[in-house]
Design brief:
- The chain is mostly helical.
- It has one domain.
- Helix 3 packs across helix 4 and helix 5 runs antiparallel to helix 7.
- The longest helix is centred in the N-terminal third of the chain and has 24 residues.
- The chain is globular and about 45 Å long.
């Protein structure tokens, strides 16, 4: 068990996790920054955010994603950026799962805000894949947090 814990805390793995998570967050933010009205409409489709806050969410969320992505890519504020990225991934996962359970077939809006013309079955199938993707992506901030905490505990 100790050997597995040591492997998970290796700096080379942490750097790769940071780069991957940072790149994913930047790539996800760019289409949202380019077309805030389309992103606001996608947020509206989730039926979770009160109408007066839709535009605020559509502007703040991509900016936060860019900030976290760049911080991870540059290796600054590692623990904070990884923790907030993990929290955002968990919120995205919960929002998708909640809508999937209630049968609200929506487009995720994660990497493309201009998705249109898909059937309900295609959107539900896409949502299931998005949930699985987000579950897998949670491993990245978890690894970064694990390694940085372990490094602090052992003086690395």
């Amino acid at each position: 068990m100790r050997k597995a814990a040591d492997l998970l805390a290796r700096p080379w793995l942490t750097v790769r996790a940071q780069i991957a998570l940072g790149a994913i967050f930047v790539a996800a933010a760019i289409p949202k920054l380019v077309d805030p009205p389309a992103f606001a409409h996608l947020i509206y489709n989730y039926r979770l955010v009160p109408a007066p806050f839709l535009n605020l969410f559509a502007l703040v969320l991509p900016s936060l994603e860019i900030l976290l992505g760049v911080a991870l890519l540059l290796g600054i504020w590692k623990r904070t950026a990884a923790g907030l990225a993990g929290l955002l991934l968990f919120v995205f996962l919960a929002a998708l799962s909640f809508n999937l359970v209630r049968g609200n077939a929506i487009d995720c809006g994660c990497f493309d805000v201009s998705v249109a013309g898909r059937t309900v079955a295609e959107r539900l199938s896409g949502m299931r894949m998005d949930v699985l993707r987000d579950i897998g992506l949670l491993a990245l901030p978890a690894q970064i947090l694990w390694a940085t905490r372990r490094g602090e505990a052992f003086g690395s």
